[in-house]
Amino acid sequence: MIPAPFDYVAPTTLEEALTALSEHGDVAKIIAGGQSLLPVLRMRLNAPEWVIDLGRIETLRGVRDDGDALVIGAMTPHSVVAADPLVAEHAALLARATATVADEQVRHRGTFGGALAHADPAGDLGAPARALGAQLVIAGPGGTRTVEADDFFRGLFETAITEDEILTEVRIPKHPGWGAHYEKFVRVAHQWPIVAVGASVKVEGGTIAGAAVGLTNMGSTPLRARAVEAALVGQAATEEACRAAAEKAVEGAEPPSDLNGDADYRRHLVTVLTRRALLAAIADAGA
Amino acid sequence: MTATEARPDRSPEFGGNEIGRDRRRKEDARLITGRTRWTDNITLPGMLHLAMVRSPFAHARITGVETAAAKDSVGVVAVLTGADFDESLGVCINAWPITPDQKAPTHPPVATDRISFAGEIVAVVAARSAAEARDAADLVEVEYDELPAVVDLEEAVKDEVLAHPDLGTNKSALWVFDSAQAGTGGNVDEAIAAARDGGIVLERTYRQQRLIPAFMEPRSVVVDPTGEQITVWSATQIPHILRFALAATTGVPESKIRVIAPDVGGGFGGKLQQTPEEMLAFAVARRLGKPVKFTETRSESLMSAHHGRDQIQKLTLAATKDGRVTGLKVELTANLGAYVALVGGGVPVLGAFMFNAIYKFPAYQFNCQTVLTNTTWTDAYRGAGRPEATYAIERLMDELAAEVGVDPLEVRERNWITHEEFPFTTVAGLEYDSGNYEAATARAKEMFRYDELRAEQQARRASGDPVQLGIGVSTFTEMCGLAPSRVLGSLDYGAGGWEHAEIRMLPTGKVEVVTGASAHGQGHETAFSQIVADRLGVPFEDVEILHGDTMVAAKGLDTYGSRSLVVGGEAVVRAADKVLEKARPIAAHLLEASVDDLEFKDGRFGVRGTDQGIGLTEVAAAAFAAHNLPDGVEANLDSEATYDPVNFNFPHGTHLCAVEVDTETGETRMRKYVACDDIGVIINPLIVSGQVHGGLVQGIAQALWEEAVYDDTGTLVTGSFVDYLLPTAADTISFDIDHTTSPATTNSLGTKGVGEAGTIASTPAVVNAVVDALRPYGVHDVRMPCTPERVWRAIREGGAGGDTTGAAAPHFDASTGMEGTVDRTDGSSPEGGDQ
């Protein structure tokens, strides 16, 4: 498992990284935590001439409070996101989902921004990011721009980031008091989810006042289940309401077929998991 | 000798308290920290590194190999293709031609003109570093003319597409055992015909999916051709057999080859092989005159190291209405892969003697057709033939219980050999020396709280709980301790089954024990030290176990088939006893006493009725000094023994498994697992626990997780651990294990093998539990691995679920070359059958 030869640069500022990228962009890959890129390199499925390591850029790490939103640096490791009190308070769904990523070792190396930029539809963080209405801040030669999560994921392993750009941080609107649950369905613990559903709900006086639902591995990108959300808001927070709303999880989904299940099985599974995620999130909101 | 009774190893002559003690493994510190001699840790001066160029196609003609760019690459010393080698390269051998007319293609270590499976080696690169070798391997341009590949076992038996066109067929060998012909039982076809009239006939087809051994340490080989002997270090289970195979096929005299298996990181049968990579490393080192190393990547390991299982089992069980089995007929199709490997077709044949398991079947017939396909070769994998057999019969016994309408344990009890009946000669012709199935079952039921769980199952069924509970039973036995040489000879196996040991009493009081068994994680160093410590009355710490080097342990047949303790351990005992025999006259001489007046106890020869005595280690020192020895006695106590077992060894046990099945998703969740194994006398309970726990997980993994999958073109889809699902500790529960003890009567320690027991027993226990949970839905099978999707489909569709509809196909297909049940050649559905 030896990668093809490549040159390596580890800038210490974002500007240096952007410069390196502008010089080598078409033959370069950015490495964040390396949990997806390194296996690809070692199996020689990709052979970039340059690897640009963002690991030494301190400004890309950490979680901060920015008024009505949390800002999570792209290079913040999963282990930090999962344990951060601000994330737990204002974006509980993200905390729950992050805690299920792979295993301890991967969570200490892998990063939030790296996972989103990799855009694996079976990755655990895209669906919660979409459900919570995340905004992705992308730096390029001409400055920074902000992309809504709904517009960020373009296809299988494909995002709005262009060749000369770097994802720097992710803004997540605060969801204080929302209950959350990430229902992940796997055969073995270290596996990518066959299907997963992230649900966050706000319950006021027994009525669902807000709902955010994201689906993992139900299409070529992480999905937001808007039909489920729409069916829930204004309803009593009951099992019947969740069951009825969960049936709508299949709307717009185009799940893959693979060794772990055919598309029709995933379509069934997503309704069961959505109901369970919603009920757990409602219970969490009441706690 | 069949009841639970005192250990027979404590003859009054020997003392000691090591046997039976929970010794921590003395080898673990270095193995776990990696501060040890793994093959890949070995670096020699001037050593070159090899990389293999492998075919991405399963079946293709090689029309050209362009090596110029690779040869020009940085650090490259040589790029060699099949055309560059002569016959001194040797071949990979099959040691067990199961029939005289077995068809087996020649297996060259590197393909010259035709590729037979994806992953086969086309060229080898030698370079100054592993990275340079890998880079250059990518520059070798091979032109292939792709040929149609036969991948599927059922397609292969039709002989429409041939894995090896030159052979004219994919069928390698048909091996048959018939109890009527052998004189060990009745005619099975008559039994089945009789059962169709008023009895029960069950017909089932079970699929033993292909598994990948997935040992922790990838295979690695280092060859040093400098010096008088060529030294080979290999991560192998079989240094002695490898040395023989190298000598036999390369023309290098055996005396010029030294093979060392240093610390080896697991094998599970997967390193019971003579590999193309070893042959190529040997040839390249000789050719270049420099040491070379090859260490495979995990991807290479998954695609090219041998796989295991991969059988279709067609089974017909005849029984009376009250569930007494009257006959069993087995028709196996077994996938050899592209070549007949070292043991090859012998693996399913090892299962031939185990389908009757712990039961008294009056008639039995076993047919096995081995088949070549364009897939990775298959060979031994933990249990090797016995897990497949045990799965089939233990699944069938649950089916029979369901048909009769009694508890699965009840139907077993109606058929099993009772403890008073040992020794018992089975319908397959084996003599079981000891066992007590009643005792193990009673203990397992008690630990499991069987009746409570059955009550909970009823309650869940009654309330329509979306999470149903299933209880699975497996009352397994197996044959291990491979093997009596005469029996192997009668089966045309290419070697014997003895084991050798040597004990050297050093002048400083330490003891060196040389064993021909070659450990690769089992804990021989610890267990054998315990045996010798007790037998010779020396401290555990003073015993050193040496193995795995043909220069140190010149004689041996290595480690597989749960043989190390019951065959190798017995050789150690016998060598130790010879040490005492040699020491006794010297001790008597030094004590000025008669030999007849000496007694040996706790490491000391004493003169009866006096306080006079001398320690064994003092005798050893006296022998070394040789100043005062009796006439005609040689000046050492060193002894050796070769032990050829008189019989196989038959551990057994009752395993009970409770599985919750989420009927909404098909997810299975293990709730409880109890294993009560009878493995005779236990030398080290801690090692036994490790073997049982690990074995259970491996068997459970076949039931729930693991499956090697090829696409239609012969590409391994499960080519990494992303898709080949190995469980980790996070996926398993804590198992409840205990033991009953019926000492083996065929070795002096009373021990039975335990290395494969857990794997053999657990697979059917788990699947039986899953099926048991789903019986109210009309489900009678779920194909392995029981993925959530398969379980979910089985619930929706009933019967065998979507994946085992083949079970209802014409049962005995003439194209398999097997004869079929006399009255069912058309595959019609019989009355009284249960399709």
Mean pLDDT of chain B: 94
Strand count of chain A: 14
Task: Indicate the radius of gyration of chain B in whole angstroms.
Answer: 28 Å
Quaternary organisation of the protein chains = heterodimer
For the termini of chain B, the CA-CA separation is: 43 Å
The largest beta-sheet of chain B arranges its strands as: 3-5-1-12-9-10-11
User: Could you tell me the number of beta strands of chain B?
Assistant: 28
Structural class by helix and strand composition of chain B: alpha+beta
CATH superfamily of the largest domain in chain B: Aldehyde oxidase/xanthine dehydrogenase, molybdopterin binding domain
Order of helices and strands of chain A: EHEHEEEHHHHHHEEHEEEEEEEHHH
Sequence stretches where pLDDT stays below 50 over 5 or more residues of chain B: 1-13, 801-816, 819-835
**Structural class by SSE content of chain A:** alpha+beta
Strand content of chain B: 15-25%
> Mind summarizing the main beta sheet of chain B?
7 strands, mixed
In CATH, what is the class of the largest domain in chain B?
Alpha Beta
In terms of topology, how is this protein built?
The complex is a heterodimer of chains A (287) and B (835).
Chain A lengths: L6 E3 L4 H11 L3 E4 L5 H6 L7 E4 L9 E4 L2 E5 L4 H6 L1 H6 L1 H7 L5 H6 L2 H7 L7 H6 L3 E6 L2 E6 H4 E3 L2 E2 L6 E8 L5 E7 L9 E10 L2 E10 L6 E2 L1 H7 L6 H8 L16 H24 L1
Parallel strand pairs in A: 1-3, 2-3
Antiparallel strand pairs in A: 4-5, 5-10, 6-7, 6-10, 8-9, 11-12, 12-13, 13-14
Helix pairs in contact in A: 10-11, 11-12
Chain B lengths: L27 H6 L14 E7 L5 E7 L1 H5 L3 E6 L32 E2 L5 E7 L2 H8 L3 E6 L6 H4 L14 E8 H4 L5 H9 L3 E12 L8 E5 L5 E5 L4 H12 L6 E4 L15 H13 L3 E4 L2 H7 L3 E12 L5 E13 L8 H6 L12 E9 L13 H19 L3 H6 L10 E2 L5 E2 L4 H12 L1 H14 L3 E11 L7 H6 L8 E7 L5 E5 L8 H13 L6 E4 L17 H28 L6 E4 L2 E4 L5 E3 H10 L13 E5 L8 E11 L5 E11 L6 H20 L31 E4 L17 H18 L13 H10 L38
Parallel strand pairs in B: 1-12, 10-11, 14-15, 20-21, 27-28
Antiparallel strand pairs in B: 1-5, 2-4, 2-6, 3-5, 7-15, 8-13, 9-10, 9-12, 13-14, 16-17, 18-26, 19-20, 19-25, 22-23, 23-24, 26-27
Helix pairs in contact in B: 11-20, 16-17, 17-18, 19-20
